[in-house]
Amino acid sequence: MRFLDDRAYEEVAGGAMRINRDVAIAQHVFILQPYVKWSAKRTTPVDVTPDDQLAEATALIHSLPNWQVARSLKVPLESLERKTLFGSGKIAEIKELLAQLRNERQVNSIFVSKGTLSFAQRQFLEDEFKLPVLDRYSVVIQILRLHATSAEARLQVAMAELPYIWSQAKDASATQTRRQGYSLTDQQKEILRTRERKLRAELDDVRRQRRLLRKKRKQLNCPTAAVVGYTNAGKTSLIKALTMEDAMQPRNQLFATLDVTAHAGYLPCNLQIIYMDTVGFMSDLPTGLFECFVATLEDAMLADIIIHVQDLSHPCHAAQRAHVEATLRSLAFSVSQGNSNAGELPPIINVFNKCDLLKPNAQVSMLAEQTDTAMCHLTSARTHAGLQTLLKDVEQQILDVTGRRKLQVRVPSGGPEMAWLYKNAAVVDTKADEQNAEKILMRVVISQCTLDQFMREFC
Ligand SMILES: Nc1nc2c(ncn2[C@@H]2O[C@H](COP(=O)(O)OP(=O)(O)OP(=O)(O)O)[C@@H](O)[C@H]2O)c(=O)[nH]1
Ligand SMILES: [Mg+2]
């Protein structure tokens, strides 16, 4: 893994992405939020307003320590593809604002909140504004670099950087590169190729281990629920509330969780369940970025059920939900290719979280809107509202999907049958048998296969 810290690579990457490893340096960012005025050319859903987009851009900047928003501006455009991005009048207006800002306080970079800027767009804007210009890709990469702690997450982030660097270099035409000085030398290209080869080999290794772990989990026969959703919806918080696992750390930052981690909890019937915490989704992420994390979501696709956590207090929660659902469907398809159940998703339980932030009558109308959805729950990971009913639903789904049943069995009190059931099934409760003092009534949750084993052993 030492190859990840490679100075020669950092130079190439820094040139393309305008970022460096030293995120501790304070940044005062001027956010420009371009949006397309006419609906025909819009790529964002109609219920996502430019203000919503700007709020997300601001949240991205605030996810980096020491990064502050010096000023922000929404810029209506006819299209996002123009070579200069903005018209000359707008450029002049922004320059004026920048001059004012420089007088009042610091500003040392510009964040154009668009998936990726072409090489030409970025060069043009940097020449005009005389400041480094970042796009969403480079800001998200910066956050991911900071939040990636496990080996797998670090490898994935490193991998996510490469397509961007290549695309920037490809964008740069021969005349531009001569004039503006950005092109990859053969040596730099070799640095990128070698890094990619090493990353692929390491990631293959990590994924082999992940598959092994998954197999082991399956052998343990413990039911699993994958917790998925948009970034900052409250996935980690919900799992923490359901498992009482103190070590988990929810954070008010985008892309706080970058690893798929497993957390054990208990259902009301005492059956153990594993919750898988996953990487959050975000719309308008350039291709190449999210794909690198898709492999970690494979586990989610193979879980017994999916819990889709949504931030009900977010103005764009409906668009976020549609985005997550569409991505899940396409993921399910790619994961199960070649299988007979191609494209089939595990049952999904919708969780409308952060309901504590809504007024009670707003909650009711929100829920009424969702009547088409069979399984949905209003919850608050903060106040724990709605968690008991959610758990009951999770239990029901798990029992259905995994073919487990609740049964009452009469066994000798203190006998080997009792010990066997405690070891191999989930014991809901026990009570004395009023008709026979030597027997005990046990309510258990058990799969058909375990029940068959029990019968073979004791009947
Ligand atoms: N008011 C309120 N805040 C919540 C609730 N659930 C989570 N939060 C807050 O929302 C923020 C994000 O929570 P996380 O649990 O880290 O969200 P996440 O979905 O895991 O986010 P990523 O890991 O970035 O994908 C934190 O500041 C939480 O304290 C809730 O029910 N009510
Ligand atoms: Mg999280």
TrEMBL record:
One of its GO terms (cellular component) is cytoplasm. SUPFAM superfamilies: P-loop containing nucleoside triphosphate hydrolases (SSF52540). Residues 223-315 form the Hflx-type G domain. Its cofactor is Mg(2+). Residues 189-216 form a coiled coil. Transmembrane segments: none annotated. GTP binds at residues 229-236, 255-259, 277-280, 353-356, 380-382. CDD domains: HflX. Mg(2+) binds at residues 236, 257. InterPro entries: G_HFLX_dom, GTP-bd, GTP-bd_M, GTPase_HflX, GTPase_HflX_N, GTPase_HflX_N_sf, P-loop_NTPase. One of its GO terms (molecular function) is metal ion binding. Keywords: Coiled coil, GTP-binding, Magnesium, Metal-binding, Nucleotide-binding. PANTHER family: GTP-BINDING PROTEIN 6-RELATED, GTP-BINDING PROTEIN HFLX. This is Hflx-type G domain-containing protein. It comes from Drosophila navojoa. The lineage of its organism: Eukaryota, Metazoa, Ecdysozoa, Arthropoda, Hexapoda.
